[in-house]
Amino acid sequence: xxxxxxxxxxxxxxxxxxxxxxxxxxxxxxxxxxxxxxxxxxxxxxxxxxxxxxxxxxxxxxxxxxxxxxxxxxxxxxxxxxxxxxxxxxxxxxxxxxxxxxxxxxxxxxxxxxxxxxxxxxxxxxxxxxxxxxxxxxxxxxxxxxxxxxxxxxxxxxxxxxxxxxxxxxxxxxxxxxxxxxxxxxxxxxxxxxxxxxxxxxxxxxxxxxxxxxxxxxxxxxxxxxxxxxxxxxxxxxxxxxxxxxxxxxxxxxxxxxxxxxxxxxxxxxxxxxxxxxxxxxxxxxxxxxxxxxxxxxxxxxxxxxxxxxxxxxxxxxxxxxxxxxxxxxxxxxxxxxxxxxxxxxxxxxxxxxxxxxxxxxxxxxxxxxxxxxxxxxxxxxxxxxxxxxxxxxxxxxxxxxxxxxxxxxxxxxxxxxxxxxxxxxxxxxxxxxxxxxxxxxxxxxxxxxxxxxxxxxxxxxxxxxxxxxxxxxxxxxxxxxxxxxxxxxxxxxxxxxxxxxxxxxxxxxxxxxxxxxxxxxxxxxxxxxxxxxxxxxxxxxxxxxxxxxxxxxxxxxxxxxxxxxxxxxxxxxxxxxxxxxxxxxxxxxxxxxxxxxxxxxxxxxxxxxxxxxxxxxxxxxxxxxxxxxxxxxxxxxxxxxxxxxxxxxxxxxxxxxxxxxxxxxxxxxxxxxxxxxxxxxxxxxxxxxxxxxxxxxxxxxxxxxxxxxxxxxxxxxxxxxxxxxxxxxxxxxxxxxxxxxxxxxxxxxxxxxxxxxxxxxxxxxxxxxxxxxxxxxxxxxxxxxxxxxxxxxxxxxxxxxxxxxxxxxxxxxxxxxxxxxxxxxxxxxxxxxxxxxxxxxxxxxxxxxxxxxxxxxxxxxxxxxxxxxxxxxxxxxxxxxxxxxxxxxxxxxxxxxxxxxxxxxxxxxxxxxxxxxxxxxxxxxxxxxxxxxxxxxxxxxxxxxxxxxxxxxxxxxxxxxxxxxxxxxxxxxxxxxxxxxxxxxxxxxxxxxxxxxxxxxxxxxxxxxxxxxxxxxxxxxxxxxxxxxxxxxxxxxxxxxxxxxxxxxxxxxxxxxxxxxxxxxxxxxxxxxxxxxxxxxxxxxxxxxxxxxxxxxxxxxxxxxxxxxxxxxxxxxxxxxxxxxx
Length: 1127
Fold this sequence. Notes:
Keywords: Cytoplasm, Membrane, Phosphoprotein, Transmembrane, Transmembrane helix
Strand content: 5-15%
Region (Disordered): 809-833
Radius of gyration: 53 Å
Number of helices: 25
Pfam families: FCH (PF00611), GRAM (PF02893), VASt (PF16016)
Membrane topology: Single-pass membrane protein
Structural class: alpha+beta
Subcellular location: Cytoplasm; Membrane
């Protein structure tokens, strides 16, 4: 290993950073390099936090919905009308306000569920997937490097053991014999072996030579292992730093998204409370209009006529048996009193149900607080899923403070609702209950008094009425008898005058007696009637006074009821006002607290905590071979190598043992090393894809010159015959290269790439890229982790290559005449900007995602003059699509310079367009203010380019990006115009919703651009039809000029026309039939080819599975199982 390849350990870098005068901010990729388990625990705790918050927000939304349903049931309960109009109107306003409050809670809970809860669930799923992927990648990286380190340690141990054994052997051989008998016996036994084939010195040399050979082999293996470890160290550090940086970005985005969700929740709650506050203000205004005396005056006094003269001074109506005034008065008073009782019962039942709803809501909030809030003297554990239920882990001071504020706000809300229920129970419900009891008692007593008085008056009136009836009957009877008597007297006088009458008969005498008797009875009855009338007159004033007393009692009782009801309604409104003010203060406080949440501060705190809590890191394996320095061993190695055959002197890098190696031994060792390296390569085949090769190896593998250096590399898979070959894509200054499984090998010059397009795998996974080349066809790469970064890198390298070619390629047509003409053109028109269609096509294909490529049947001049020139067309189009507040400005002449992404361009003119975009989205507002800045360049006969920059406001993530779109119109030889459009978002900030926002923007932009094209064609057709109608003069012979429409064949041709087919028509029909048969044949061949392709793929899968069964290495088998499709 060379000295220049030495890598500075991370601990040394951290120590140098700590001693610098201006330390850099703490970062994952530096300070957590040796604490990957803590990073994994942090990521999993983040997932648990998202799950806990998702459950919390879901439960909160469910409780809000339950509370609103209970309020809705109360509002839908049967209502009773009060005879007091003002009180009745206020009670109706209270019911209306309760309905409005219930509707606001329902709306908040629904939006909360569809927007906030759905967002946190999506964040949880995304976070879980991202953390699992990053953890898996990090573990693979560490496992790969640990394998290299373990191999280096094992070879070091083997080398040290061989050196120790050799030293022990040399020490035992160099030990001097003692002078005792045992040594003599040993010497004699040793000397007695001289007659054998080998002498003792030969055996000693053989042992030493074998030991030296072992040391040389162990040293070579140890040196190779250390060199391999050193070569992988830089790649390992870079890969792990990238992984840790991805962890940091993921955690920061998660915390920022949680902050955004909590803020949006409380802001939506504040909006709901403001609406409820307006409803309560209406209730307060209605209560201020209540005047109990006016209700009494209008309802009782005027309605029943209690202040009328007949009730205050007259008494005749009391004695008149035919008068219904008394009955109506009694019925009216009792009806109003009964209505008051019913209204009081209804109000009491409403308040009882209201209090029950508040108690249920408070119990739900207390339960939610006990689940998600820590109990006193309890500390939340930060281990991996330490709790059986998901809880918010302690991930930092600001997040903990924000979550504590959220739980405290929940407890505050429960306290406010509990206090609201108490206010309803004590001042309101208690006063109403007391009033109800007293009102019922008073009403019962007044009803009894009124009934008794009414019965007495009726009895007196009926008795007097009976005497009058008898008197009238007697008078009628007396009158009848007197008439009969008069008639009889006349008859008797006539008969007596004629001399025919006798003396008065007995009948006449009885009749006279009866008349006298009737007169006496009438006289007695008249006396009795006069006495009864006098008695009634004497009692009339008493009856009237008693009736006034009872009616006054009714009036006082109703006034008491209305006063208490008014006071209760005022207390109810005050309690509502107190509740809403408390909830507003709580929400404003939580907005302030959550706004203090800082993802950066929490991440810095976590890094500092891990660094402080981590034990001192032990040094890893050395990146320089630590060879033996024993003089005895070095001398013996020198002797061993000097007695060998033909010699080659070798001095390996970082070795302090200069030795000579036999050529034969070196070749054998090289062969052995090659075999071991091949085994290691087969063993670590799957892990090698995680590490990019160096520039030297890159040049050797892809046979590129030394000037080609690796700029970037990306892990991906190349699809060959619909089979993904996992590997790595490398980018150099001028080439794109790929190597992977199944001998997948690509070397592609960047200048041959003509088009790049983002693709999806499995329809929805945005991790693929398709490259179209000029000579090698198309390449489909998938399984990207950083697809957009790869595409951006390729685009930048292609742009650099094109600029270099433009600089190095001399211009052949730059004559002085051309320069003079160009100068004269620029002097004649200052805003004239020439268009280079090739450059415009390059900008559109490289900087934008092409969404539409169509040919429009209209001239280019019409597009410029009628569609983009005036503001009327765009104004009408925007209004037709439902946009409001449309304002299309006038064009301002340029030149105007603008840089959409990285290329600075010059346009001829610019204008501003503003409107309100109206569309129902699942998340966010339905009306979005939008502003566009449109820049235009036009050259007749060459093309028209429109660059549009769109920005929005009052929408989620509106400050994260701006939308750049481009319209390129080029003329066609037949007079038509080709339209190509592209869209791309310029991101100012990063978010995990980037893919979703880009997909929605692309689909909506495509629909808008297609609609523009359709409307443009319709407008051109109308203009053409109008122009043709005006230009065609009236003629008497219409057959002289046939309009183009006449050439159209009717859709329904009569059957007779088929008999008059010309020979040319038969030929056309024959060709059409032949074409139809060819299409059927092609379809049949495609079907057979598809079946053969499926069969080949099944055979490939079977072969790969057979290879999988024959492979003994478990790690390689796992990799192939990931590649093979399931059964």
